[in-house]
Records
---
Amino acid sequence: MNSSNTQITDRALALLRREIAATKIGPGETVALVYFSEYVDRDRKTLDGFRPGYGAMAWRADQMHDWRVAQLPDGTTLPFFARFKMATDTRYSIDIASDAFGLFSIDPIPLPLGRSASLG
């Protein structure tokens, strides 16, 4: 997926900027969105309010060979590993999945009835 077919909601962008600013980045790392399917306490119980989603974290840049890239409105590029096959002719939206846990959703944007998926 190229960066031109993603968009981000204003509220998700504000949260994402806070999450990126709070992420410690080491040598050879960059901030990326990584999918979290669960978050449990020591008793293996899902924490209240948790919903699966993508979280901002430091990731080694040399380990992102097949990752997708979203471009934020300020031009920042953000790599992420898609949890599903993403079509190049479909638009996607980044939104908040869990504000309490700083997680994001990346979902296809439904097309109006009768419209083709072409971005052209």
---
Amino acid sequence: MLEQKEVQIGSEKMVIESLPATKALNLLARLMRIAGGAGKGVSDLPNTVGDIEKDLHVGAMIQGVLEQVDPSDTPVLIKGIVQESLPVWRDKPGFSEWYENRFSRRFDDLLVLLKEILEWNYGEAAALAKKLLAGALSSKEEESPAGSSVPSDQ
């Protein structure tokens, strides 16, 4: 049985369910491709996390993400994620009508639900990715470029 979690979306409580492993991995691959587009707005990694703001080019990041996203596919993708994650609606007729009515003019609720679903399914993976990035940045600080000399404190 897949794990479930109750979440508050607007004035309504909903039960979300973890995605089956294969579906979660397929979705993760799509999300990584989209997020990878943001890499177009990042210069070489800074030496420290504190310097990262000067190396980000937000406009280029947004353009990179948009190049990876088919605008007509995005609503279908989000709707599919929601349907697959709400066990009360999975593979049941009437979902489309409920979805369209429930989230019409309430995109904030839809985005909160989507955030809850993604955090529920990928929260641990995101924490691991942050640790790996922090490790990569700290090891980069310790390395010096080939052929350069690093002044010593002596």
---
Amino acid sequence: MIFANTEGKEGQDETVFYIRDDEKYIDKLPDKPSYEIVKHIFSSKNVCAFFFMVRFGGHNDYLYDAWVNYNLIYDGHKLCKNLANHDTVRFIFVNEYGRAVKIIETINFMKDKMKDYIKISEEKGFWEMYQFDNVKKYIYQKYPTGKELWSAIKDKKVKYKINDLPEVKTKNTGNIQAKKVYYF
């Protein structure tokens, strides 16, 4: 699932989520399916990541996830602020050819948690994309399937202690000074 800013209702900016799937599966999804969500803020000393999963129709075949990065170079702040302020969220299903074939609008289940995420992110300041990607990598190693991650978040059993990871010693590589990094 990817997301982007677009012009929404009444000309306001809106953040929408695009889900690419085979049309034969999209067609099987009802126009107004039930949905469940889990969401979590993964926060370390220097990085903060907002993660959510949505499952439509109660089937794991329709389980999708997205990571939101406040410091995303293109519109990260705007994306997050839209999600913190809008009452609804649209999921646009696109087929294998990139054509929109179904749109599902839900209440904005991220609104309150996104406000918390923005606050935490602003307190932390800027982080690099590789730091954000390291958080994702760590989580996917710990929970390799969508079902495992869904269950861990839903049951509030997510364990995430990035600050306990070993520090890699800084190495001088000629004119380039390596940054402090953590292995996941």
